[in-house]
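Recall the central idea of this unit: under ordinary conditions, the amino acid sequence of a chain determines the structure it adopts. In this exercise we apply that idea directly, starting from the sequence alone.
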Amino acid sequence: MLFPKRLWDALADGSVTVAFRYWKRPTVKAGGSLVTPAGVLGIDGVDRIGLRRITAADARAAGYDTRAALVADLARYRRPGTALYRIAFHYAGEDPRRALREDDRVGGRELLAIRERLARLDRSSRQGPWTRSVLELIRDSPETLAADLAKRRGRETLHFKADVRKLKTLGLTESLRVGYRLSPRGRAVLRRLPCDS
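Accordingly, the structure predicted from this sequence is:
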């Protein structure tokens, strides 16, 4: 579940606490959490709702000036076979990956665990080993469109992005407005990976 950049500050300060999405089935659930660029959101409720039940207060809580503006925006996303859901949430804190990305003091055991995780990702890939080469590609081409990076690797963009998200979970990469870059942690780890990894 993505949020436009205009809402990131409002998510973090708690002034946006509701979202509406058309889904075939919900991608979040009550009691769960969602990591966003603004931080972690705790999901309080996910309820199917009719468009007519959306109130002006709902629209303001979703970051819109008027109900009409929200309804007009939602119309762009309605697809056959989908239903409208109201998602209530609260700001639960900073993304823990942010602190992880900044930590470039990677000890021996920690480095071993990261290397083992990268090796598992390589072994489970139908494309063969990829983790080191993707880290190097991002290091050498920061702020490059994901589609362009994927093309260089001969990959489909969505699959390439999914792989980069796996590296991001380990704190090794950062998403930018355009493309990616290695985090301080990612640079430290890449320097210490064996050449054949």
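Strands lie at 18-23, 33-36, 39-48, 83-93, 173-175, 180-182.
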